Amino acid sequence: MNQEGTTRRGLLIATAAGVAAVVATTAGQSFGWLSRFNVLGPRVRGLGPQSLPVNTTAAEARVVDVARADTWRLSVTGPAGTRTFSLTDLRNMPQSTSEVPIACVEGWSSTADWSGVRVRDLVDAVGGSDTNSVRFHSLQEGSQYSVSTMGPEFVRAEATLLALDLFGEPLDLDHGFPARVIAPGRPGVLQTKWIASMEVLP
Ligand SMILES: Nc1nc2c(c(=O)[nH]1)N[C@H]1C(S)=C(S)[C@@H](COP(=O)(O)O)O[C@H]1N2
Ligand SMILES: [Mo]
Asked: Is the pLDDT of residue 7 over 90?
């Protein structure tokens, strides 16, 4: 569905890296050129749940149970205090849609349609304003990707979302269900998945 969104440069890098890895790992094996297609398949075709590649699955991040739990709540802390939002609360807020690519340093970039709540609406709900930054905390613990921070220029952007949907369907668990960060013009590493809380910073 979004194959045309995968950049040619991303494909070339992924292909070159895949071939190098296969040459390195399969020298002397008789099925080297068959496994080559297994290795390259998912990335070259942009496959993954909801037609988007995955960096770190929910299982790898050890968040499967906490992400699926119906006790999940988003906690948002700001100058006016802390508010918690259930998934239903978030879906009852005004929703918007953004077309924003995930661009991973591993060498792929793929465009996707995201919908959810504007980050700035959540910031405003706890007394934040135009000058505030926000720190996002993932349910995932102990990873360099567990926390990300964005400055006010991203917080205020119309297209910056706490995304709940991808291509019109609830996020797949591997894409950050129940909620993830989506902001235009930022590297994939900062599009934090499985959000637990947001902290409004001065
Ligand atoms: N919590 C968490 N968020 C994360 C990651 C991760 O490992 N853990 N990987 C990041 C990286 S490197 C990328 S490129 C994107 C990939 O998003 P996707 O797997 O939905 O395509 O998620 C980002 N968000
Ligand atoms: Mo990435």
From this structure: no
